[in-house]
Amino acid sequence: MIEIRNIKKSFKDKEILKGISGTFEQGKSNLIIGASGTGKSVLLKTIVGLILPDEGEVYYNDRDFLKANRDVKTEIRREIGMLFQSSALFDSKNVEQNVMFPLDVLTKMSFPEKLERVNFCLKRVGLENANKKMPSEISGGMQKRVGIARAIVNNSKYLFCDEPNSGLDPQTSILIDELIAEITDEYDITTVVVTHDMNSVIGIGEKIIYLCNGRKLWEGANDDIADSGVKELDEFVFANKVMRKLKRQI
Amino acid sequence: MKSFGKYFIFLGSLFTNRETFKTYVRLTFDECILIGIDSIFLVSLVSLFIGAVTTVQTAYNLISPLIPNFVISQVVREMTVLELAPTIMAIVFSGKVGSSIAGGLGTMRITEQIDALEVMGINSSSYLVLPKIIATIFMYPLLVICAGVLSLYGGYLAGTLANIISPTDYIYGIRYEFNPYTIQFALIKSFVFAFLISSISSYKGFYTRGGALEVGIASTKAVTNSVIAVLLADYLLAQLLL
Fold first, then answer.
1. Considering CB atoms only, which of A70, A77, A101 is closest to B119?
2. C-alpha angle with apex A61: A57 to A65, nearest 5 degrees?
3. Is there a contact between B93 and B229 (Cβ–Cβ < 8 Å)?
4. HEC string of B110-174?
5. Rounded to two decimals, what is the model's pTM?
6. How far is B105 from chain A (nearest CA, A)?
7. Dmax over Cα atoms in chain B, in whole Å?
8. Is residue B64 included in any domain, yes or no?
9. What are phi and psi of A33, to 5 degrees?
10. Domains, in order of start, for chain A
11. Which of A70, A85, A105 sits opposite B122 (nearest CB)?
12. Contact (CB<8Å) A88/B120
């Protein structure tokens, strides 16, 4: 489980996060949702330690991440897998080398062991025959899959996904969402997904935190989102015509 | 001053939370190929022509019955060893390798590849930059030696083929009153320049923010700042060591 307490972050005079608290549960797909510019990605990067908050605490299974010494911090970081918005695959490495990278650097496994693990992860994300392809030779959806494989290859306990559906068609987006949810369930990991895609919210949002202007306005499950009673969240959820029509029918 | 301080903090970060020695050996070897071997053609071409042009121009300026012909190659030797091979090559090298380092790291930064390393618990600056600096410090002096030899050979070719100087006079001039310390001085300069070019370019690339435009700006700044640092260091080393 990950717990955040009173996270505050400003860039120059602009306050981006205004005291956000919450928990992200193990074995569940936890979603951070909100409109663009509300601080979702900043919050995610604060949780993984890429951005230092001005105030607040982050706990990984009761281990204080921000106050931890370098060794503990490194240990926690090595339990983290992250899928970036741009996939962040290393251009100079092929698919196999990209997925094997965390094992190369963080473990003492032999090459056959590493290859076996890589092939298992690639098979798990549906990319059995893409080992030797370069990132530039594969589609955006495949890059996301490789990113997921790389994130889980080292048996991560925590999976973070920053806008996993950005730049993907709706069908591929759903496949990626389903893959994330399946992996979360299968390996009982704590998954945190930042998104503004309503398909993801409805499809995999077991626990949702809604951010608006740097504040947490709502927390709950996807089943309850339509009855949140929060005006801003209603406007966000029912922003498109189809959703509004569905709401009227309900 | 703020950038200066940040640069030194950046250099300090290269030596904290390092990966295994084996990892660095492999990365440094790869960088040696990219930085050193891939630069041989350009360095060879530039040094051959610089040697040739220096010979022709020195000969043009020394037309006097009182000055023996071997002085031409002696001047070419001194210019090559002291300045052309280490310093001019440093400027060429910063244009080729410095911009490549800054562009590569800048692209990695804006496409979140550096963030990916950090999230994995890897010290990204140490992992990405330290091998580049070590490889440059290894390879640049070798390139300078190569440039020096080729520059003198370029001068020999230009001088003898154009009948400016006889082969015997050229060789005699090259050997005449040769001070081996100049080689030592050139190598000291090459080590310093290699460190400056690789570290400044890495710093500029590593802290790139924004998009493709900023990567271009970072590459340009890397070259400009490296060249300025090389010229300043050149003057300081000449004052200190000659």
1. A77
2. 35
3. no
4. HCCHHHHHHHCCCCHHHHHHHHHHHHHHHHHHHHHHHHHHHHHHHHHHHHHHCCCCCHHHHHHHH
5. 0.86
6. 11
7. 72
8. yes
9. -120, 165
10. 2-79+158-249 (3.40.50.300), 91-156 (no CATH)
11. A105
12. no
- Residue B12 falls inside a structural domain: no
**pLDDT given for residue A250 in this prediction:** 65
Token output for A152:
């889980």
Rounded (10°) CA dihedral B130, B133, B138, B139: 130
Quick one: pLDDT at residue A106? 84
Nearby residues of A191 by Cβ (< 8 Å), 6 or more positions away = A24, A28, A29, A30, A158, A159, A160, A161, A180, A181, A183, A184
ipTM above 0.90, yes or no: no
Judge whether B25 lies within some domain: yes
Strand partners, A24: A2
Contact B115 A106 (CB under 8 A): no
Whether B8 is covered by a domain: the verdict is: no
Residue with tokens 């920053």: A162
Instruction: Name which of A11, A86, A160 to mutate to probe chain B: the one with the most chain B Cβ atoms within 10 A of its Cβ.
Output: A86
For β-strands A190-195 and A158-162, DSSP reports them as: parallel
A205 neighbors A165 (Cβ within 8 angstroms): no
Size of interface A-B (CB pairs under 8 A): 57
3-state SS assignment for residue A67: coil
User: In Å, how far is B183's CA from the nearest CA of chain A?
Assistant: 38
Q: Which of residues 99-138 of A touch B (CB under 8 A)?
A: 101-102, 104-106
Question: Minimal Cα distance from B117: which residue of A?
Answer: A102
- For an interface test with B, the pick among A46, A50, A154 (most B C-beta atoms closer than 10 Å) comes out as A50
pLDDT value of position B154? 95
Sequential pLDDT tens for chain A (250 residues)? 899 999 999 998 889 999 999 999 998 889 998 888 888 999 999 999 899 999 999 999 889 998 888 888 888 888 999 999 888 999 989 999 999 999 988 888 899 999 999 999 998 888 888 899 999 999 888 898 899 999 989 888 999 999 888 878 888 888 888 888 888 988 899 999 998 887 777 788 888 899 988 898 888 888 887 777 778 877 777 777 777 777 777 6
Kind plus residue range of the DSSP H or E element containing A61:
none
Give the structural domain span for B64.
21-241
The DSSP string of A189-245 is -EEEEEE--HHHHHHH-SEEEEEETTEEEEEE-GGGGGG---HHHHHHHT-SHHHHH
Confidence band for B224, pLDDT divided at 50, 70 and 90 = very high
Burial of B97 (0-12, 13-18, 19+ CB in 10 A): buried
> d(Cα B58, Cα B174) in Å, to the nearest integer?
14
Say if residues A183 and A124 touch (Cβ distance below 8 Å).
Answer: yes
For chain B, the domain total comes to 1
